[in-house]
Amino acid sequence: MKYFRHVLVILFILNFNFANAQDNDLESKITKNLRCLICQGQSVYDSDSDFAVSLKLLVSKKLEEGKNEKQIYDYLKDKYGEWILYDPKFDKSTYFLWLLPILLFITGGAIILRLFIIKKK
Amino acid sequence: MKIRIPFLFLTIFFLAIFLVFYKGLQNSNIYVPNNNIEKELPNFKAQLFDKDSEILLKDILKKDKFYLINIWASWCVPCREEHSFLISLSNQKNIEIVGLSYKDNSKNAKNFLKELGNPYQIILSDKDGTNSIELGAYGVPESFLIYNQKIIKKIIGPLNNKSFIEIKKIIK
User: Is B42 helix (H, G, I), strand (E, B) or coil?
Assistant: First the structure.
């Protein structure tokens, strides 16, 4: 009975931990996709600069206000431009960036397929 | 001939990729924010400096008037450099300067103003830095020239002789 109680207490405490982690998930996801504009190659999530700390606070405030992920991205894009997002949108300036991996994959597949077919024949 | 066609195709393909990346290498990878785009001023509640009351930004800024919102802090060294320009601007008739005290201790901020003079008509306090982000600021110091509740110019970093003359030209 004593052990059972201990296990219950531990489970109870762990449950709090789980609930907390769930709450922060969306906030972490958003801040990981935001570029820290005054740092070198760091996301807002990774950085501890004044800019990043304030931005993290603002994201959590906006989430509390009931804004969704896309609304927050649009809001920040309007303030700081497309550069703040790590996930660039698909348009004429980024189509090469998006299509190149697919193109390489298809070309590679075609070469492998051809080689196998030629070998079989 | 069968082998040559894929070979030719691959060579052209990689050459094209090489050319695109080679061209990309010569582009500058330093991000330069666009400072001259006219933007609607965000409206947010800010705390008044050294007071408990809050005020809406758009309630301070009247239409048909020039305002300079200056983000500053007593711990920021470049803010000391630009302070003389702010004092000179505050003597101009058609502009009012609004200070936004960024992540600062109020005692230090007061000492800073006592030492260098107070160019601000009104001072707001941004304890957690979120108001500055709502304005679209990168850090401190930074200034926003406002007209008709629109941001017409943004000066990132301390004001200098060049930006001072530019502002004076705009507000004439």
Answer: coil
Domains and CATH numbers, chain B: 39-171 (3.40.30.10)
Contact A37 B134 (CB under 8 A): no
ipTM over 0.90: no
Residue spans per domain, chain A: 2-87, 89-121
**Residue whose token pair is 């697919």:** A102
Tens digits of residue pLDDT in B65-98: 899 999 999 999 999 999 999 999 999 888 999 9
Which pTM does this prediction carry? Answer: 0.74
For residue A17, give how far its alpha carbon lies from the nearest alpha carbon of chain B (Å).
26
CATH homologous superfamily of A2-87: Cytochrome C biogenesis protein (1.10.8.640)
> B108 with B75: CB under 8 angstroms?
yes
| A100/B contact by beta carbon, under 8 A | yes
Q: Is the dihedral of CA A111, A115, A116, A120 positive or negative?
A: positive
The 10s digit of each residue's pLDDT in A42-94 is 999 999 999 999 999 999 999 999 999 999 999 998 888 888 988 777 777 77
Task: Please tell me if residue A53 touches chain B, with a CB cutoff of 8 Å.
Answer: yes
Angle between helices B77-90 and B106-116 (to 10 degrees): 50
